[in-house]
Amino acid sequence: MAETKVRFGILGCANIARKVSRAMKLAPNCAITAIGSRSIEKASQFAAENEFPASAKVYGSYDAVLDDPDVEAVYIPLPTSLHLRWAVLAAEKKKHVLLEKPVALNVKELDTILEACESNGVQYMDATMWMHHPRTAKMREFLSDPQRFGQLKSVHSIFSYVGGPEFLKDDIRIKPDLDALGALGDTGWYCTRAILWANEYELPKTVTALPEPEYNEAGVILSCGALLRWTDGKTATFYCSFLTNLTMDITALGTNGYLCVHDFVIPFQENGAPFYEASNSRFANLAIGIEPVPSEHAIDTDLPQEALMVQVFANLVAGINEKGASPEKKWPTISRKTQLVIDAVMASIEKDFEPVEVVP
């Protein structure tokens, strides 16, 4: 029997929506039902360029998508400043919400979104794609192995890319009225999530922003970093930037081993992704190498991680709509923890790089 397809509406024609709409076409349990933009011409052009099915409806407003009774779930790739309004309205219209990151400008806004989703019985998930790659589960297995990895002691994460002159002039991610968090909200979201993931979502005790973040003329962050500390002595650092070469690293250090991945945000190859692990490392004789040599593990996948993401989300939606299941609380919980750390970094910057306690 054919798998039930969850019917999606898309709010807006952001560039990332091209990737996610392709994912919806690849996922066996998803269907693109509608797209809305501020003009019907723009929505029609987007649908045509991205080869939407002929049955997909095209609207000249976001409201029209939310009012469409055939739409069960919405993907929201709008600028962060618009998330509060449209995610809350979507939940009130009983549409399940897949929300692009950064999900909100602060945790107060996110709490309003999550409360609307919970009170209306709809599923919420943020669109952090790498969480759904099968490599992520395999890396978790290694980090959870007391013999091979041991006790986690430190995590270091980097996500940076060179935005370029046009990006730094016109992209919404550097506009204070659209995405005021800048690089911290965009690339820093991934770094923060990676650190929390490695720590099994245990929040740090304090967050201290590193001095001398870089800003544009409008005061939006173009690069920054932070130090996170836990009460048991664990530490983590991250660096995020629109100004340095494309880098997507996680390094997790344990008492018995380490894990390293160089493309955690977007795998270098769509159909597979490696990570590296080493256990009980030591210098070889005369310190001319190390033993054992780190192992490379290549994890294959039939679907790209963004298609796996929408597939997981659609499965949750189908369980709610067809079987009366309750919304999965894992995703709003880890989304909120990520936002709490982002907020703490901003607070530390505003307090001249003093440590800020993270309060759940």
From TrEMBL:
InterPro entries named in the record: Gfo/Idh/MocA-like_OxRdtase_N, GFO_IDH_MocA-like_dom, NAD(P)-bd_dom_sf
Pfam families assigned: GFO_IDH_MocA, GFO_IDH_MocA_C3
Gfo/Idh/MocA-like oxidoreductase N-terminal domain sequence ranges: 6-125
Annotated GFO/IDH/MocA-like oxidoreductase domain residues: 146-259
Listed transmembrane segments: none
Gene3D superfamilies xref list: Dihydrodipicolinate Reductase, domain 2, NAD(P)-binding Rossmann-like Domain
Family per record: Belongs to the Gfo/Idh/MocA family.
Protein name: Gfo/Idh/MocA-like oxidoreductase N-terminal domain-containing protein
Source organism (scientific name): Ilex paraguariensis (yerba mate)
